[in-house]
Write a structure and sequence with these properties.
The chain is about 25% helix and about 25% strand. By secondary structure, the protein is of the alpha/beta class. Strands 6-5-7-8-4-9-10-11-12 form a nine-stranded mixed sheet, with helices on both faces. A seven-stranded mixed sheet has the order 15-16-14-13-17-20-21. Strands 2-1-3 form a three-stranded antiparallel sheet, with no helix packed on it. Helix 9 crosses helix 10. It is globular and about 75 Å long. The structure holds thymidine-5'-diphosphate and magnesium ion. Magnesium ion binds next to helix 3. Thymidine-5'-diphosphate (TYD) binds next to helix 3 and helix 4.
Length: about 450
Amino acid sequence: MKKSATIFFCQNCGYESAKWSGQCPACREWNTFAEEPSAPGTKGTASGKKRTGGKRSTPVSLDHVESKDQARISTGMRELDQVLGGGIVPGSLVLVGGDPGIGKSTLLLQVCRNLGERLPKILYISGEESLQQIKLRASRIGSFRDTLKLLCETNLSEIEEAVLEERPQVVVIDSIQTMYQEEITSAPGSVSQVREATGVLMRLAKEQGISIFIVGHVTKEGTVAGPRVLEHMVDTVLYFEGDRHASYRILRGVKNRFGSTNEIGVFEMREDGLREVANPSEYMLSGKPEGASGSVVACTMEGTRPMLLEVQALVCKTNFGLPRRTAAGMDYNRVNLLMAVLEKRLNLPLSGYDAYVNIAGGIRLSEPAMDLALVLAVISSYKDVPIPEKTVVFGEVGLSGEVRAVSMAQQRVLEAKKLGFTRVLLPGSSMEQVKNIKGIELVAVATVRDAQGAIR
Ligand code: TYD
Ligand code: MG
């Protein structure tokens, strides 16, 4: 039977199909199918290939597996080590995804610099920038040892050869989307190229025990361009996020075969590269106005880490029939919902008022524990009464105006105390989680009406 020479790939999720279709049956995106030559060996050959000689693999019982304590390599950045689960595991494949221009190349170049001080050989392979461009960036970051070698190359077989020849301990591939294999005729960045390239790198990592970092750009849907296929092939997936205009960046673990994905790392982009932020709360609260109405300090959890930040609201009389609402950093519909709760439960005539909500610092949150802070910011701005100083607020608000319990209340209160706050408004039902904390006033609220009363 003659095999068709081309195949259609969804550029969003990597779904394969023999025919073109308008909507991808797997991820329901429209117009994402592109025709690519079906590469020799992309499908079915792994199992179809006859084994010729060599050792057969035999099943073993768990007791007979030697447990090796994986010695981790520290990246020299505490925040990154934490997200990786304690450092780099030799032979691991790590994907670092993020929007273009967010600082992936900068981060990895800095990691290379730190590693270069302790390891004999590091290889940084860029398919995006020339040696001069990398040099320019490197000169902003600082001085480099000559244990770091650079290579500008996009051809994977050349890269494989170079790696086998140089035998570095850590390799960085700056952008998987620029890499290509000659045998595959589709363009670099297409699903089959990215998938093959990752396969090659994975083999290299596992067989040679080299740790490889792969940079992957993210499309506006928030997935690594085309290849979500990439995510399940690699050991660890980290996303680098943040507002390009704000200087803080968050590195978030999405998948980790060697640790938990609950950790985040916080960085700040400076002129001389990325700097770790050891105390994110302090950083997010710097510049908070004192005695201004509509400003509330809230406590959110980023993974297992509590973080204080400022929620701002500006409520003013609407000039048109329809009130204007905007929400920066929070879900727009959630803001509308909470304002409706206030209208109904506290009889505030908010439908005649515009409301602008913002989370200072350009951070984006979706945690329901931010509800109570938003509610209080709106009330405070509407009445033009500032919230008492040194007060932190958290809690989820339900449709009948009840304040509901949130997780990890204890950590949140401790974080507030650590930063010198003296008062915490929290859900009454979370009170039993925070028994033995002294030196800070805990105000339990059960409804939004209680909360309104507590700030007067
Ligand atoms: P970059 O690492 O090139 O992003 P990516 O590889 O994710 O596309 O980061 C580029 C941005 O970082 C660019 O807008 C300039 C800024 N930057 C600094 O602010 N300070 C620095 O020291 C460096 C190297 C870059
Ligand atoms: Mg880059």
